[in-house]
């Protein structure tokens, strides 16, 4: 099977529906028949290298949350279906009209509020949850109030007054009803606790993130070698989806080309890669719940002098940002460092062509606290992790973005993957 027939095969399920909203990551294609391109067939399955987060690690996270609850003067932390719930407990559940809640008190054992008919299933999950054997479960029948049980659970711990921290992804209807059902408690934002834990990565978390970034970059390189002018951007994204499966991890990456590369999050319009045009890809794979977020930009053919200049400026801006990502610096200083390079090169001022912030926190969520943006005076600490993604977007012409993830150290940001060297050799020789 030649490469063109491979890309047109009906066995390649579309990795993303047109019009996919920002922040959504579709699943990669699950099946493929035919001969893989050599560069993708050569990818090593690295799934065995990923070691899951243990219950002991989650117990340490809960202990840290209790410390921060005490520091913040909060009586407890309430979470519903969210990434934070998975982070602290390993429990994965969605949100519906029936509230499930997990409450970590500053002192004492955690408790759960869940529907009556879910109790047995929830007890099964407690076998792999920190302190599960001591976790109380309060159940409610369909004509009863789950919110009143939050108040009862707190009261049983002697917590009738004080501040109850609500995790930021909690639906308003839950938080509002909890506030009414707990008249002695003040409902407050729990982000200082949840982000206070999640922003600082452990050695194991960093190991998983490095693996996710390494695998993503290898997938990008393999797809770049297999790609060519004449291919649609959808076909290229599908190609990367198959490469992620070959590597052993779920993943997705978007692809934009030509004038649409000047739109940071792309376009729903059909696109065909042409010789001498910019190609820009973004996103990555997920390893044990930790995603990579990498962007690469290149040209199949000969880039123009303007393209080369823009690439060099973005490359320098990315390096300047990494150098500024030192423990002790304010988060905004990283954005300022990159923006200054772009402005001094004649592509400013302000957000004229570099239209977004420099980067976002990254961990179990692709975007999480805190953010590398002007005005954010959060002091960086070692082992915080961020994207480093400056870009220049020239409307109606092209855009260039270079993105690698990095960890904050005392001497600056350490990129998990090497900077892209050029527009024609984006992965080096």
What structural keywords apply?
alpha+beta; 34% helix; Creatine Amidinohydrolase; 19% strand; disordered N terminus; 6-stranded mixed beta sheet; 12 helices; single chain; 4-stranded antiparallel beta sheet
Summarize the structure.
With 429 residues, the protein is α+β, with helices and mostly antiparallel strands.
Q: What does this 3D model show about the protein?
A:
This protein is α+β, with helices and mostly antiparallel strands and 429 residues long. It has twelve helices and 17 strands. The protein folds into two domains: 3-35 and 201-415, Alpha-Beta Complex (Creatine Amidinohydrolase); 55-198, Creatinase/prolidase N-terminal domain (Creatine Amidinohydrolase, Chain A, domain 1). It has helices at residues 3-8, 38-41, 55-72, 83-89, 119-125, 146-156, 172-181, 191-198, 203-226, 233-247, 305-324, 331-347, and strands at residues 76-79, 101-105, 111-115, 136-140, 162-166, 185-189, 251-257, 278-287, 290-291, 296-299, 359-361, 368-372, 385-388, 391-394, 398-401, 404-409, 412-415. The strands form five sheets. A six-stranded mixed beta sheet has the order 4-3-2-1-5-6, sandwiched between helices. Strands 7, 8, 9 and 10 form a four-stranded antiparallel beta sheet that branches. The model is unreliable at 1-25 and 27-31 (pLDDT under 50).
């Amino acid at each position: 099977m030649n490469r063109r027939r491979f890309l047109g095969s009906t066995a390649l399920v579309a990795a993303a529906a047109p019009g996919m909203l920002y922040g959504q990551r579709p699943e990669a294609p699950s099946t493929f028949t035919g001969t893989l391109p050599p560069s993708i067939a050569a990818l090593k399955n690295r799934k065995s290298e990923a070691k899951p987060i243990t219950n002991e690690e989650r117990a340490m996270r809960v202990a840290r949350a209790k410390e921060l609850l005490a520091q913040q003067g909060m009586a407890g932390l309430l979470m519903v279906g969210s990434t934070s719930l998975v982070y602290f407990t390993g429990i994965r559940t969605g949100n519906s009209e029936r509230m499930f809640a997990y409450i970590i008190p500053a002192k004492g054992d955690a408790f759960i509020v869940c529907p009556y008919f879910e109790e047995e299933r929830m007890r099964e999950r407690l076998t792999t949850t920190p302190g599960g054997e001591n976790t109380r479960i309060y159940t409610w029948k369909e004509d009863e109030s789950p919110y009143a049980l939050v108040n009862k659970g707190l009261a049983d711990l002697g917590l009738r007054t004080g501040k109850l921290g609500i995790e930021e992804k909690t639906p308003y209807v839950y938080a509002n009803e909890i506030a009414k059902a707990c008249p002695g408690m003040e409902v407050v934002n729990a982000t200082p606790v949840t982000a206070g834990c999640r922003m600082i990565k452990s050695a194991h978390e960093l190991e998983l993130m490095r693996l996710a970034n390494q695998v993503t970059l290898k997938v990008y390189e393999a797809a770049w070698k297999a790609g060519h002018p004449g291919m649609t951007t959808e076909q290229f994204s599908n190609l990367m989806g198959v490469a992620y499966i070959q590597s052993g991890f779920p993943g997705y990456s978007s692809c934009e080309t030509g004038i649409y590369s000047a739109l940071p999050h792309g376009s729903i319009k059909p696109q065909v890669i042409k010789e001498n045009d910019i190609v820009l890809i973004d996103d990555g794979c997920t390893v044990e719940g930790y995603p990579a977020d990498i962007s690469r930009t290149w040209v199949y053919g000969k880039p123009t002098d303007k393209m080369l200049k823009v690439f060099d400026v973005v490359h320098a801006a990315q390096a300047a940002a990494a150098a500024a990502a030192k423990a002790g610096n304010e988060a905004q200083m990283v954005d300022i460092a990159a923006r200054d390079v772009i402005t001094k090169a004649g592509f400013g001022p302000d957000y004229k062509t570099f239209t977004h912030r420099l980067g976002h926190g990254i961990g179990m969520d692709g975007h999480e606290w805190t953010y590398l943006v002007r005005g954010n005076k959060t002091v960086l600490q070692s082992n915080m992790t961020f994207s480093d993604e400056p870009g220049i977007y020239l409307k109606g012409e092209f855009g260039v973005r270079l993105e690698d993830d990095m960890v904050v150290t005392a001497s600056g940001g350490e990129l998990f993957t090497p900077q892209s060297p050029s527009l024609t050799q984006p992965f080096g020789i």
